Request: fold
Amino acid sequence: MIGVSFYVVAASTVRLVSDSLFEDTVRRQTTGVSEMAVMLGEQMQGETADTFYPKLLQAARSGGGRLLVVDRDGKVMFDTFDERCGTRLALQEVHSVLGGKDADYGFHLQDGDGAQQAPSVLDAVTKRDVQKIWVGCFVSAMDGSLTGEGGALVLIASVQDTVDSLIFIRDRMLLVFAAALIAVLLLASLISRIITKPVAELSAGIERMTKGDYQHRVHVPGKSEMAQLASAFNQMSEQVRNLEEARNQFVSNASHELKTPLATIKILVESMMYEDEMDPGLRREFLGDIDKEIDRLSSVVGDLLTLVHIDSHKLKLRRERMIFADTVRETSARLTPLAKKRGQEITTQITDECEMFADPGKLAQVCYNIIENGIKYTPDGGKIHVRLRRVGRDAVLEISDTGVGIPPEDLPHVFDRFYRVDKARSRDTGGTGLGLSIVQQIVRLHAGSVTVQSERGRGTTFIVQLPVK
Reply:
């Protein structure tokens, strides 16, 4: 498109220059031959052919061309080259003037008689005959005693210099056009490579990612749109890799959590099957262990289903106008018997009722999971303190315990699924490792946040913030 546009501009430029040059030549030669026709017509009065001819030669030399005088019938009376006297000029321009027109002109090719046109780079293509040259025929009406009324003066002058100038300009424009076209093609190729290289790299990166290679990164330097797109792709690839790792870790942990109670149940059942005369007390103990493992298995499955519903956005909140303080009190009361079994004390401090529009059942699960977590990881005789207050437009629930605490390096992972802190979160406590993850998801569904503060050996505090509407 750039090449075509440049060609149109170049052709238009050559045409404009051509028109300008030829218009100037025509105007100058037409004016000159008209003036000579008047002058020679006046000089012809009372002259003979012999006395007039020298004056015609002098005028031809001053006019820079060949002069011919024709009568009203088109017959040549005088010719400064002495070649066409007595013959008729079969030129359209002559007939036009003899027919009544004041002046006319035309351009013709004729033998150069040794002269030739300037060479051109396009001669091999156009098959131009450089042995012929261009001449202009300029005709003006002329009246005199020798021609009578209706005669004409014909000036034949070479216009080859003008044609050569046009050919020179055309060739130069052609060379400039060719150079510009090559430059444009090289520049377009360079720009194309600059643009297509990152696109190709992105395409290759996407293809590798579809094959499971999430480690591959696309490198596009600079701050262009392609560089921003490459950066976004790398971030997406990193997120996909993290999700893939999390998925694999989740599947592995879930499989292990399900496999462990099943393996225990299998061992206990096989022991009962192959023991012919088992002590009733031992059998009752085995059945109790099987019942605990089934409860544990059911708890894991229930928590997994809850997380699946949350992740698939199928978990719908059943919001209603509620008093969050009532939920906190009821949950604390439900877990008080469990705490008393271990000699623990649950205390509550409520400074605001925190009326809100939320899902009572889901928020009760949040309170239950955190308080139960504190009971599990607090030694016998410890304390769990529950505090509810209002800060601005948020309800703030703080649940603190005097338990073993969480090491700093484990704090960022306490809400990860199946994550267990060494010793402090062993499977001996009976937890599934999913409770805090469920807490975080439910709080986020309510547009809130949950954080944890802890120090090893000095207890843990969970802080839940929920908007009050």
Remarks:
- The longest strand covers residues 132-144.
- The domain at 2-183 is CATH 3.30.450.20 (Beta-Lactamase).
